[in-house]
């Protein structure tokens, strides 16, 4: 099983009640709140693989990072209300504990 497959398998179990598509739900980040430009956009699966490779837990700033149904968007109409950033932080922390 690849690292990506392992992450997806774990997340599907951990976040299963939310019914999210891990490949088409995105963690998007803007550079600032004054004139926002999206500087990073990854699917949830890619986001978690990123942090796994770093071996670190993220500390998201909810003013600059959010969960969206569209890549490269920070529009309120594209926000995904079923997942909060702190829940993703907890999932990543749990996964790091399992693999650490």
Question: Any overview of this molecule?
Answer:
This protein is α+β, with helices and mostly antiparallel strands. 38% of the residues lie in helices and 15% in strands. The chain has a three-stranded antiparallel sheet with strand order 2-1-3. β1 and β2 form a beta hairpin. The longest helix has 15 residues, at 85-99. It is globular and about 40 Å long. The model has no long low-confidence stretch (mean pLDDT 95).
Annotation, overall tally of beta strands: 3
Distance between the termini: 17 Å
Strand content: 15-25%
Please tell me how large the radius of gyration is: 13 Å
Helix/sheet category: alpha+beta
The main pleated sheet reads as: 3 strands, antiparallel
Number of helices: 3
- Can you list the strand order of the major beta sheet? 2-1-3
Topology pattern, helix = H, strand = E: HEEHEH
Shape: globular
Specify the helix fraction band: 25-40%
Give me the oligomer status: single chain
Low-confidence stretches: none
Rounded mean pLDDT is 95
How would the blueprint of this fold be written?
Blueprint: H1 3-14, E1 26-30, E2 38-43, H2 44-54, E3 65-68, H3 85-99
Antiparallel strand pairs: 1-2, 1-3
Helix pairs in contact: 1-2
């Amino acid at each position: 099983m690849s690292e990506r497959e392992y992450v997806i398998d774990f997340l599907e179990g951990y976040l299963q009640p939310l019914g999210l598509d891990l490949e088409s739900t995105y963690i998007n980040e803007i550079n600032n709140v004054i004139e926002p430009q999206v500087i990073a956009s990854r699917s949830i699966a890619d986001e978690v693989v990123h942090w796994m490779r770093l071996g670190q837990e993220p500390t998201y700033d909810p003013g600059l990072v959010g969960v969206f149904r569209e890549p490269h968007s920070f529009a309120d109409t594209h926000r995904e209300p079923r997942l909060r950033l702190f829940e993703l932080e907890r999932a990543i922390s749990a996964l790091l504990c399992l693999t650490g």
